């Protein structure tokens, strides 16, 4: 029986020039670039990578995990991190790599995920900010958006914030915290003088859920919907479908916690 070796890889990447995580035909993805790099530095030895979760096109990740399986021989961990990073593209970085066991499963292991969505409004931002935040040209009722964001922690049925739900989709979930704050996390000298961040922490997010949540908050801040209607969205049993998906470039998977 062939020996199998297991490793947990902690990494981050800027998603602006990638078509998401998952390998796809004819487009550049993060998984594709990781696999190409591993194939080179492992000199063709057999391996497989599984991510803790997938990201959409242009979504960035500050910290997440992948599980790496090797089939021929174990890694020589001394110096491997440096070799890996030396050969990866500049917008992907491995933070740490450690050995794990066959009992660990990156998909089934309980995880808490924290997402950040960065935005500014009213004034046109510097073009260099575009990979990191959404620029909303209109004024926003920020206080109303802050009130709406806090309501998300009451949501247990994610129907209205699930992209293209169908009869087999499971809508139950848990958001442990949600808030809008002044951005003191991500900083650059070309960022607008004031920017903001939606912070969402929870388990088991659906595809494009954070972007649908942000879209609803923008509609609330622009008075396109009322707070009473927003509360109906939070109560998933109303089965209201949403179409405003906020752009991907403001979204960052900030942190994945294995619990």
UniProtKB/TrEMBL annotation:
Origin superkingdom: Bacteria
Enzyme class name: isomerase
EC number: 5.4.99.12
Catalytic activity: uridine(38/39/40) in tRNA = pseudouridine(38/39/40) in tRNA
Positions bound to substrate: 115
Keywords assigned by UniProt, alphabetized: Isomerase, tRNA processing
Pfam families tied to this protein: PseudoU_synth_1
Active site: 56 (nucleophile)
Residue ranges of every copy of the Pseudouridine synthase I TruA alpha/beta domain listed in the record: 157-256
Keyword tRNA processing: yes
Listed GO biological process terms: tRNA pseudouridine synthesis
InterPro entries: PsdUridine_synth_cat_dom_sf, PsdUridine_synth_TruA, PsdUridine_synth_TruA_a/b_dom, PsdUridine_synth_TruA_C, TruA/RsuA/RluB/E/F_N
GO MF, any single term: RNA binding
Family of this protein: Belongs to the tRNA pseudouridine synthase TruA family.
Protein's UniProt name: tRNA pseudouridine synthase
Provenance organism: Psychroflexus salarius
Organism lineage string: Bacteria, Pseudomonadati, Bacteroidota, Flavobacteriia, Flavobacteriales
């Amino acid at each position: 029986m062939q020996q199998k070796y297991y490793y947990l890889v902690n990494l981050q990447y800027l998603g602006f020039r990638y078509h998401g995580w998952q390998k796809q035909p004819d487009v550049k993805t993060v998984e594709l670039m990781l696999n190409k790099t591993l194939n080179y530095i492992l000199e063709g030895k057999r391996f497989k990578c599984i991510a803790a979760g997938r990201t959409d096109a242009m979504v960035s990740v500050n910290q997440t995990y992948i599980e790496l399986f090797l089939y021929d021989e174990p890694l020589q961990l001394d110096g491997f991190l440096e070799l890996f990073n030396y050969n990866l593209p500049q917008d992907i970085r491995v933070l740490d790599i450690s050995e794990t066991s066959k009992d660990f499963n990156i998909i089934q292991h309980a995880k808490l995920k924290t997402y950040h969505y960065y935005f500014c409004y009213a004034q046109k931002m510097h073009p260099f900010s575009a990979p990191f935040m959404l620029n909303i040209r209109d004024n926003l009722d920020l206080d109303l958006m802050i009130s709406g964001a806090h309501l998300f922690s009451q949501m247990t049925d994610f129907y209205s914030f699930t992209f293209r739900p169908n009869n087999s989709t499971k809508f139950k979930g848990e958001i442990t915290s949600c808030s809008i704050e002044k951005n003191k996390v991500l900083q650059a000298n070309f960022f607008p003088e004031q920017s903001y961040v939606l912070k969402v922490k929870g388990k088991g997010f659906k595809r494009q859920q954070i972007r649908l949540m942000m879209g609803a908050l923008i509609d609330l801040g622009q008075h396109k919907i009322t707070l009473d209607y927003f509360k109906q969205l939070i109560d998933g049993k109303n089965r209201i479908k949403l179409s405003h998906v906020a752009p991907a470039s403001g979204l960052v998977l900030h942190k994945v916690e294995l619990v």
